[in-house]
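Hello again, I could really use a second opinion on something today. Take your time with it, there's no hurry, and the full record follows here:

___
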Amino acid sequence: MKDRRIIGDRRKLSTAFLSMQSIYSGRRETIRREVDKKKYILVDNYSPRLFIILLLLLLLSITDAYLTLSLVKVSNATELNPIMALYLEHGTFTFFLEKFLFTSVAVFIFCVLNNFAVARVSLALAIIFYFGLVFYELNIMSNFFP
């Protein structure tokens, strides 16, 4: 069968890094067909809502790191996570950097796999966990600094 297109296949050309199409392409942000939802499809057009949620997770992790370091210095508290406790022994900068890197990898994975129910549930649980942890740490700090 002969290809009767006037213009060549537009999908063969790549989109420029900084262009209106790369910022807002008009493409769908979700998978619409039920058959396609059962496949492993990674969407490259992310919503601002997802960006805000992932940024919230990163900020909660940084807040947790700061509060943990404050509690360790002021009240002789200990880090319960054995992996992070190991990094804490190497210094505060190493602890903070590793905490940030671990969370950044998780944020990247949540971003890429945002169409999967497991990733969405895990992201929600991570945010709930960090909110609880930050609240707990703030509660401890309020007992030491009334």
